[in-house]
Amino acid sequence: MNIAIIPARSGSKRIPGKNIKEFCGKPMIGWSILEAINSECFDRIIVSTDSHEIAEIANSFGAETPFLRPKNISDDFTPIVEVMKHATSELLRLDYNLSNICCIFATAPFIKSHYLKSGLNQLINNNCDYVFPVTSFSYPIQRSLIVNADNTAQMLYPEFSLTRSQDLLEAWHDAGQFYWGKLESWIEEREILKSNIQILRLPRKLVQDIDTFEDWEYAEALFQSMT
């Protein structure tokens, strides 16, 4: 059985109510649930939350909430692998037959069903712990600057100050949308970036962190331009 687990705690500090705040006409979490349904990858779609309000909204979009997450693993310091271990353990306790499990973020409105399918295929066809999407940085990270309190700046990597951009190694980062993983990987809390991983390459236009109100406004404008 392939399961989607969507972690969606309450208590977001930077954007209050972030997981259920309206984004382009739907609660943010609704976009993740609907795309998970559209992918046809999952036998069940589960939301792990500490909030009855989030649970009710998730249920209205077709997800299930067979348990509530304890408050002690619902803060912003708990690693995602610990949240996923708790969720998978609860589902096993409830006699769910688990095999491949996808952690889908509640704030991932740009997620696409065909990438979810591709990730599952990679997980099945490769001997790996996790599969997740990445995208490239738009600017060479080797030219990053540190900005000081007195408004001065210095290069983070001064050894590359005279290197041409085209000669610098391209860098990538986690797209922050989903992680496909095997049951044992989640149960054993295998640290994702230190495990045997495979990646999916996403175009930058499908990746947007949403951590501030400025991020939110930009993401809505970008989302609306694509629909």
Describe this structure in words.
This protein has 227 residues and is an alpha/beta fold. It has one domain: Spore Coat Polysaccharide Biosynthesis Protein SpsA, Chain A. It contains six helices and eleven strands. The protein has helices spanning 28-39, 52-60, 80-93, 113-125, 183-187, 213-225; strands at 2-7, 22-23, 26-27, 44-48, 100-104, 130-136, 145-147, 153-155, 172-174, 178-182, 197-201.
Q: What's the CATH first level? A: Alpha Beta
Rg is 19 Å
Shape: globular
Structural class based on helices, strands and sheet pairing: alpha/beta
Number of helices: 6
Oligomeric nature of the chains: single chain
State the CATH superfamily name. Spore Coat Polysaccharide Biosynthesis Protein SpsA, Chain A
**What string gives the helices and strands in order?**
EEEHEHHEHEEEEEHEH
**Total domain modules:** 1
In the CATH hierarchy, the third-tier topology is known as: Spore Coat Polysaccharide Biosynthesis Protein SpsA, Chain A
Biggest beta sheet attributes: 7 strands, mixed
Which residue ranges are poorly predicted, with pLDDT under 50 across at least 5 consecutive positions? none
Cα end-to-end separation: 32 Å
Mean pLDDT: 96
How many E strands? 11
Helix content: 25-40%
Q: How large a portion of the residues is in β-strands, by DSSP E?
A: 15-25%
CATH architectural category: Alpha-Beta Complex
